[in-house]
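Suppose you are handed a protein chain with no further information: no name, no annotation, nothing but its sequence. What can you learn? This example shows the usual starting point.
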Amino acid sequence: KVAMAMMGDAVVAAVVDDVVDARDVEDVEDIFRRGRAFGGGAFDAREDDGEGEGGDDAVVVVRGRAARPAVVGVRRGDAREEEEEEEEVEEVQPDDEFEGTYAGGGAGATTTPGRAKIFIHTFGCSHNHSDSEFMAGQLKEYGYELVKDAEAADGWLVNTCTVKNPSQSAMNTVIERGLGKDKAIVVAGCVPQGDRGAKELKDVSLLGITQIDRVVEAMERTLAGDTVRMLEKKALPTLDLPKVRRNEFVEILPLSTGCLGACTYCKTKHARGDLGSYEISALVARVEQAMSEGVSEIWLSSEDTGAYGIDLGTDVAALFRAITAVLPTDGSVMLRLGMTNPPYILAHLDAVAEAMRHPAVYAWMHIPVQAGSNRVLDAMKREYTVEEFKQVCDTLLEAVPGMSIATDIIAGFPGETDEDWKETMALIEHYKFAEVHISQFYPRPGTPAAKMERVPTQIVKARTRELTAFFESYQPHESLVGKTERVWVSDIASDGTSLVAHTKNYTQILLPGGEDERARLMGRSAMVKIYESSRWSCKAEVLELVQRDPTVARVKLSVISSEEEAVAIREKLTKGKRVRIKKPAVAEVVEGCTTCGSETPCSSTATSASRYVTLESALFVGVCVGVIGLAYAKLSRRT
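A reasonable first move is to predict its three-dimensional structure. Written in structure tokens, the prediction is:
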């Protein structure tokens, strides 16, 4: 609201994303105080090959940042030369130990490693917030103190989003502010991974999206005065890392990273790359761990939930069956499904519908359409038609009682005509979605759409105003007034007092707050009576708490595709795409005796050294012995 009030028509948003916090609003205010209006041009357009600068496990370190204080007990280089000169870099292996202390931080006091104060700021989606929670857990476990006061912190960890220009503009402001206060800054997330050469990132340490399990090392070296680059793509970090949740009652569970799409406007693809999914067993284990730690909601997070598992030879239907099988059906823990694009969910509509009918799953899904014109969708390379999007919506709305769908619209995509926009308006008018995220088109550097001819700004503004006016003209929640509903309480409202709860179809309900009510209701389920509705939420009074019932039996989903059908679906979805299917290791079946080499098994079970000795290994050992002998002889002659 602050952003819209200050920016007028520059940005129109029908829904403020639930992952934006108060600090993001402060950044918006700061940007405008400095006269930095949101818009394009934050970074130069440059292509990224997705590869890191060092070896598979190397850290590139820019040595001797003059702005940081000196380090005792750590070898350092010279101060930074003029900007025109090439930086001196060295590769440092991740197991190199840090020794000594550093003098620095906000107060300039000498601090031992792992004892500094760290401030964490996160931009973007729930996946980014999950990454920040994992990084916060590691920093805290190592001994760092996590603080909410940026001024009091020695080091700043900034987790970034590259979806839109405003996010990167806000990031730039945060970096400038931190450098101006001589803070040690580590920038993580999609921006450094997708645009590592940007001039705004020159004087800060960078941490790639698959390197979050090395955040302690990155922060330690940055506090010591070095500028590190940890951007190598590697295997996904494990899900058993320590975690500090932003909301103690909500577990954000990343299903995968990357996607199978190639949208012409998307910069996130440059950062997160192709689809890489976690094993179902690892995800289920994380769900069980989170429930044991007292969470009441689990949010599945992914760039495209519907594509989950294709790279593993499985699918989202199998994932839903596995997770819901361990959820209690008394409503003590609720599951929220993640965002999904239409192409990949089309093949699993029956399984998705059954999952949302489960008593422990919210009947809500985020399905971005982006445009109501097939011509525009084709220019975006969205890989589906308006008719297919409607099929997804119609099927789910019919199969899941009371289901709610959220969607996204990009206004003013290059080449969008008045007729195209009329088709988009007609689509929204037909469904009257409870949530519509409206965004102007932002040309992201390095994307194909950035090179396309843009729609005039005044036309884009007029279209966003038109859609926003229609969206605010209907009241999707007024039918709930006077009804008694079950809700799940999980958060504190922006007023700092009211409690935030959600119905089964994820309608937001505001409840009376205060310390007593917070202690009684947070993380619990209750029956409430709704007495007022607005465009964004409803207000209700609490009737009674719903007691947990651990004796309630688990509910198993029954929609199970045959293996042949599942394989056919995966082949159809991945046709013409680069997908690396991970195949399970199969033990080699060897007939006969592996010890002596006979064609029939021997009765002896003793292990023989001959089983492991080959000609190549013998030659290698001989060479090594010879080299060692020559070195020893040479050393003896010198002495």
